[in-house]
Amino acid sequence: MKGEIAMNVTNVSTTHYQQNGDHIVGMVLDPYEMEQNDPFLFLAHDDFVEGTFGPHPHRGIETVTYGVSGTVEHFDTANGPGTIHEGDVQWMTAGHGVLHSEEPAKGTRAQVLQLWVNLPADEKMRESNYQTLLARDMPVVSIGASTIRLFAGALGADEAPTETIQPVHFFEIRVPAGETVTIPTPSDWKTFAAVLEGSGTFGTNERPATARQAVHFDGKGTSVTITATDDLLVLLYAGKPLGQPIAARGPFVMTTDEELQRAFQDYRNGYFHTLEKKED
User: What is the Cα–Cα distance from 259 to 248, expressed in whole angstroms?
Assistant: First the structure.
């Protein structure tokens, strides 16, 4: 777009997968690089069956789950149920605590991309929330022959209805072969793209990437440029860094070790099992 300064690509990473029984997982963003990816904690590509993600707790984060294939049924005791299919998103704000499950429809497999977003220190103990973001309900913006579906954030005059705590943009981008699209993106935010289908080049330095790779931008600009070699499906994520300490272990992400220990103590004492659905 006119007046935009396109970002360079700093690196392209390839997702490697491991299998544990019926669960196949690849880390698109590695949890060992939380500080570099602030405010994002990790992004996992999960291929799983029923029973993989039964009831478990969270505190201090948001999980953003994109349906790659199949059906995923979510339930937590504080916010009730929700179901997503391919191309839909679940946006779960754990806040002070949830006990939830994420399961494929009975007798099936599902694939998802799940992003963990850190919450600011003063928001970690907020009320929990759950949003089902169906693809058909999200705004779609056309730029040339490309389409951009907005799951979080704004593009031009269009804005996703999603309630976000930490400023985040999450766009699903489809670029036909041979086409180029430029997407405005806030400067100095952590910005990366996960390539789901096809191949293309990214950034002003035209780094090539293909499916099951992640493209990391330098944040030194106001847009990202994508050119499709083949029909391209990309998820673009951008988030404003928090710049706060991270104390993370298992399902809990807090700011200090003392807060982390309290989360585990609350779980052992049954706090997460007493959370009930909020009154409307």
Answer: 10
